[in-house]
What we know:
The chain is α/β, with parallel strands linked by helices. 35% of the residues lie in helices and 20% in strands. The chain contains 11 helices and 10 strands. Helix 9 links the parallel strand 8 and strand 9. Helix 4 packs across helix 6, helix 6 crosses helix 11 and helix 8 runs parallel beside helix 9. The chain is elongated and about 100 Å long.
Amino acid sequence: MGQKIERDHQRFRKIVRGKVKQNLGKYITRGEMIGKKGREFVSIPLPSIEIPQFRFGRKGSGGVGQGPGQPGQPLTPSQDGDGTGQAGDSPGGHILEVELTIEELAGILGDELALPRIEPKGKKNIVTTKDKYSGIRQTGPESLRHFKRTFKRALRRQIAAGSYVPENPIVIPIREDKQYRSWKETPLPQSVACILYMMDVSGSMTDQQKEIVRIEAFWIDTWLRAHYKGIERVYIIHDAEAHEVDEHTFYHTRESGGTRISTAYTLANKIIDQRYPPADWNLYAFHFSDGDNWGDDVPTCMNLLQNELLPKLNLFGYAQVESPYGSGEFLDHVKELKDRVDNVVWSRVPDKESIIGSIKELLGTGR
């Protein structure tokens, strides 16, 4: 029975996976998964899955097989009326919510977008282990013998056999009495990757553009988590100045001020040097902007990228969201840089429907 239940459960999981994969574009663009994210699971509404089950019906309630009927007679009660009927007692349709792990979600994303696997680098990929004595077993080295448990078992055995003499309380364990401490190797995952998210929050960036950034960052996280034991994140916002902030501030800062992109790159480079040495960390930087930048700041940006940041990064991704106020010129300079180095990727994200293509362009190198 247990095996049959497990087979049925696995079959249901395949159905769920297929439904999510079939509608992945809808979930990505609407951001439904992000609002239902838990620590390790994502809750997903699937309205089109019907779980087979028996239901009680009412005798003579009509329908197919309930008499000859008349030509043109509907098989269900008419929906016409003045809306003054009594409250019903029959169940209606419900949306089923299922949970997928982040790993399953990443697998669906990789399959759907044909993303290559990432080969991490650096010594931080080694996962250390810690031995924890958390159980008891029947065999083991004498150095791990659990004296108290062994004594109790031997005492119970002798009492049951009638060989225990209270006046001469000698307890001699035999082989079957001996209990040994057992240990379990507990992995100690180390944070082996860091993602630096940079976003332009100048006056030309609107809430719609920031929502695109939020959705895309979630899927970038999902894919990278499938390849690393731990992920750390750094959030940087910038207008004419750059600041490191927490995740909530990153997505909810109001727009204001002009734009100097180099301030974000300078801060990112400083954070890497102070906290994330490239020899130990797999580093990813993603910059989201509408491409508007102060004119004389472009050479400074290109110099910082080419000579400071790119030698330290696994990947630098630039995603340009379209704003009615931004010039969009910075993308042209990133394109020129990509022709000279291989760890630069870029994408254009004019609207939410373009997020899928942008994710594939940013993560499709497998770096």
